[in-house]
Amino acid sequence: MSLARTGSILNLHRSAPLAACALAALAFALGAAGASAQQAATPASTFEPVVGQQGKDVIWVPTTPMILERMLRMAQVTPRDIVVDLGSGDGRIAIAAAKDFGARARGLEYNPDMVALSKREAIKAGVADRVTFEEADIFKADFSNATVVTMYLLPNLNRDLRPIILKMKPGTRVASHQFDMGEWEADEQCDLAGRQCFFWIVPAQVGGTWKIKSGAAEYEVALKQTFQKVTGLVNVANGKSSLREPMLRADHLRFSLVDDKGVQHDFDGRVSGTSLKGTMRTGARSVPFEATRTGD
Ligand SMILES: C[S@@+](CC[C@H](N)C(=O)[O-])C[C@H]1O[C@@H](n2cnc3c(N)ncnc32)[C@H](O)[C@@H]1O
Q: If you take atom 23 of ligand 1, which residue's CA is the nearest one?
């Protein structure tokens, strides 16, 4: 880990609720070599983590119980979920997801002592059958099976993970403690006593030209997508017209268009790859429609 990375998280964590953690982190930064040597000599079963200890890309600072509960509530975790915590530290988020929300959970953590500690904590919490911890680099591991991703990393790491997360199944929920994802604006965020949580839903990829058919009616709609935000144009006689109120959430796409006769049609469908199927409502009448995406 570079000193620059150590320095940046120290600065970012120096807020009131985690002042103690930040001080411990500072102590670590000042005496990193001594602490590492001490930990290396400590038998794994008695390993005691130290706030601020070195990690591969970011030091360890744990998420407080209040924040982790809020993150899991924002993501509306249920027993049907697979929650993956990226850089799982002592395992607390994955363990809480299993114990308090009934989910299955995975923790991916680079530090083997933290992985061993997390496994012991999962046994103590009685959730070892639903939680696994793996010694892994989050940038190399496959976590595409997650329905919920949680993380407490750094802004640059979030941004580096962004393309990987955006390729996940539409509808995957993502909760981050303290750090955002740059240009990918959060769908929701919260501020708890000065600590931030950010929440996103992975959007389907919808940018391109859609040829829509509904009975005898046909429309060509061009969508532009920036993360979860969508704008679009529909071909009308002698020109193009903007779509009204386009909305994308996970695989759910909605928009309205006004045709050349001045009639409004409201489309509401589900995207699956290059296919979109749903219902077109015109006044009181609803009929099915299908669409295929042909270009980017
Ligand atoms: C700020 S702590 C957060 C721990 C835990 N997620 C929580 O919120 O309590 C970040 C953790 O990521 C781990 N880590 C750093 N770089 C990593 C990497 N490339 N792959 C896996 N874990 C990493 C660190 O060892 C540390 O435990």
A: 87
For the Cβ of 137 lying below 6 angstroms from any atom of ligand 1, the answer is yes
| Angle, CA 251 vertex, CA 105 and CA 67 arms, to 5° | 40
Residue 229 has what pLDDT? 98
- Residue 255 CA to residue 272 CA, distance in Å, equals 17
- Regions of the chain where pLDDT drops below 50: 1-42
Ligand 1 pocket, 94 CB below 6 A? Answer: no
- CA pair distance 232, 258, nearest whole angstrom: 12
Same domain, 168 and 221: no
Residue 239 included in any domain: yes
Distance 137 CA to ligand 1 centre (A): 9
CA–centroid distance, 110 to ligand 1, in Å, is 7
- Rounded distance from Cα 133 to ligand 1 centre (Å): 12
pTM comes to 0.86
- When divided into structural domains, the chain yields a total of 2
Pocket test for ligand 1, best of 11, 39, 111, 121 (most atoms within 8 A of CB): 111
Answer yes or no: is the C-beta of 62 below 6 A from any ligand 1 atom: yes
Last residue in a domain, options 171, 201, 231: 201
